[in-house]
Amino acid sequence: MSMTERMTGQFIPGASLLHSLDARAKLFGFILLTAAVILADTVAGYALIIALMLLLTAVSKLPVSTVVGSVRRMFWFFVIIFIMNCLFYSAEDPIWSWWIISLSKAGAVQGFNVMFRILIILVLSNIFTLVTPPLEITSAIQSMLKPLKLLRLPADDIAMIISVAIQFIPTLLQEADTIKMAQIARGARFESRKLHERAAAMLPLIVPMFLSAFKRADELATAMEARGYRGAKHRSGKKAAPMPAGSYASILFCAAVCAAEIII
Amino acid sequence: MIKAKDLIFSYDCEGGRHRSLDGACITVRDGELVAVLGHNGCGKSTLVKHFNALLEVQKGELTVAGLDAKSEANIWTLRRKVGMVFQNPDNQFVSSVVAEDVAFGLENYGVDGSEIPERVSAALALVGMAGFERRSPHMLSGGQKQRVALAGVLAMDPDILVFDEVTSMLDPDGRREVLSVIKRLHSQQGKTIVMITHYVEEAVFADRVYLMHDGRMLADGAPREMLTDLELLRRTGLTPPTPVRMYHDLKAAGFELPYCPLTNEELAEELCRLK
């Protein structure tokens, strides 16, 4: 695993247009575009989405390899999703069938749809976290969750938890790598061709991962308390400054894409 | 000023309760740099976690910066006056941007947003990390991470700094960086510092050293007194610094140095004078 791959999803400072947008606008735009991706189901719709992704990547001035980094890691996940859909989605006019399995054209189309959507949403969320500092995401989520306060839910704390969780992903990935190496050194068979051996090798990876995650969480909580954290509501959140006009324009743009997907 | 008297702390563990502090007493005067030395599990971490009310006083007396640590009402004032840096640099960051992380404490205490960037930059400058505001802590070296964590604490301008084995996970370069920042904060900023460690060498530059064993203090005094006392160090379960060991080995071999050196520099000087 290379250094750049490890850091996927981590904020990279920059001076692009996407970096400079208000985090609330970016979060809202992200939700709108996610909706647009789910709504897309025609060739023209897909073309629009792909064009949009290329545009976003270009505007963000991020290297393409960073933007698609985590997608490569999930290659087998996509393959499995596709095959499962091909074989189990529909039993009507099958090309080939046996027992409960039936390969159908509708299934293949559905498989492609699901795969395409997950892939694009993954890339989209990647771009979002790459151009937005984590605590800005926190306050954006905070302002978006405000209505929850009416239901007496701790919206501020939920936002803090989400942000800290995102921020620990690279550390945990790195650790999974280290533990994996240690287990391989002691004869674990992650590379084995036999599925049951590979599955058996996962357990000694997962148990220490959980233990260490709990230990980290505990230490982080202590460190946060030592620095005066007592629930997010006491924090001097940045004053809810009105969003600049450019940010409204970007939301409008995302809404237009969403509308276009509904029409085509 | 920290004044602890007969602190007792025990927690439940397999097969009953374990007493981690057993009548610990410590006094740290304003502007003093005190090192608490002891091997793993002697209770030194437990002791300092009382100073900012991370652990509740079960039994005994504790006043920190004029505040009674037993009073619940003092907790948040206490945590602002006593800054604490921990062992593992990776488990202290709440943000993947240095400036945001350093600002975390300030925001917790409701410091006005317009003041924050300035105080963050000042704190980073104090630890020699100016210009790293937009960087990600994950991309820094261990020593740099610990200095950023220290800046996060310094931004709140605490009177007392507590270091809980901050160098134990660092490489020699990182350790040197962090120690030199600690020394500078003591000599130039006049901070009161409590440093706990199990590296005898790190206690050499302290004003005073406490030797801790099994939840209580065995002795305290100047480093030169404490770190050259072989019997005392043996009872604490610590290895004396290399120059001290060398002094005694030379003595056994019939070479008597004029005094017991504490640092490598002193040792070298004495050796050069040896006829």
Describe the protein's architecture and organization.
The complex is a heterodimer of chains A (264) and B (275). Chain A is mainly alpha-helical. Chain A has a domain at 133-230. Helix content of chain A is 70%, strand content 2%. Chain A contains twelve helices and two strands, in the order αααααααββααααα. A two-stranded antiparallel ribbon of chain A has the order 1-2. In chain A, helix 4 (43-60) runs parallel beside helix 8, helix 7 runs antiparallel to helix 8 (105-131) and helix 10 (155-185) packs across helix 11 (195-226). The longest helix of chain A has 32 residues, at 195-226. Chain A is globular. Chain B is an alpha/beta fold. Chain B has one domain (2-240): Rossmann fold. Chain B contains ten helices and ten strands. Chain B has helices at residues 44-51, 75-81, 98-108, 116-126, 142-154, 172-189, 223-226, 230-236, 242-252, 264-273, and strands at 2-13, 16-28, 33-37, 59-64, 67-68, 82-85, 160-164, 192-197, 208-213, 216-221. Chain B has a six-stranded mixed sheet, sandwiched between helices. In chain B, strands 2-1-4-5 form a four-stranded antiparallel sheet, with helices on one face. In chain B, strand 4 (59-64) and strand 5 (67-68) form a beta hairpin. The model of chain B has no long low-confidence stretch (mean pLDDT 92). Chains A and B meet through helix 9, helix 10 and helix 11 of A and helix 2 and helix 3 of B.
Across the major sheet of chain A, the strand order is 1-2
Instruction: Report the mean per-residue pLDDT of chain A as an integer.
Output: 83
Summed up, the helix count of chain A is 12
**Pairing-aware structural class of the strands and helices of chain A?**
mainly alpha
Helix and strand pattern of chain B: EEEHEEHEHHHEHEEEHHHH
Q: What is the helix/strand order of chain A?
A: HHHHHHHEEHHHHH
- Order of strands in the sheet with most strands of chain B: 6-7-8-3-9-10
Helix content of chain B: 25-40%
Oligomer: heterodimer
* Rg estimate of chain B, integer Å: 20 Å
Mean pLDDT reading of chain B: 92
Strand content of chain A: under 5%
Integer count of domains of chain B: 1
Parts with pLDDT < 50 across at least 5 consecutive residues of chain B:
none
Q: What low-confidence regions of chain A span 5 or more consecutive residues with pLDDT below 50?
A: 1-6
